Amino acid sequence: MNPRLPEQLRNSMERFTEHVEMPPGLARRAYRRWHKRRVMTRATVAATTAVAAGAAVAIMAAGSSGNAPSQNDAYVVSRVENALAAVAHADNIAFTRSITTSHAPDFPSGTDLTWYTRDRFNHIAYTSSGRPYFSLTVTRVPGGLQMVTVQYEHRFVGYRDELMGARTARDCGTAAAVLTTVEVNPGDMTNWPATIRAFIGCNVLKVAGHQRAGRTDLIRFVGAQADYLAMTLLVNPSTFLPSRMVVTSSQPGQAWTTTTEFGSLPPTRANLTHLSAPIPAGFTQSHQRPEAAGGSFYGTILAWLFGQ
Amino acid sequence: MERGQAAEELEDFLVRRGKPLLRAAVLLTGSQEAGEDLLQAALERLLGHWPRITGDPEAYLRRTLYHLAADGWRQQGLWRRKYLLLRPLHPAVSQDRTDEVDRRDVVIRLLLQLPPRQRAVIVLRYWEQLSEAEAAAVLGCSVGTVKSATSRGLARMRELSGDGPDAQAQQGQETNA
Question: What is the pTM of this model?
Answer without folding.
Answer: 0.55
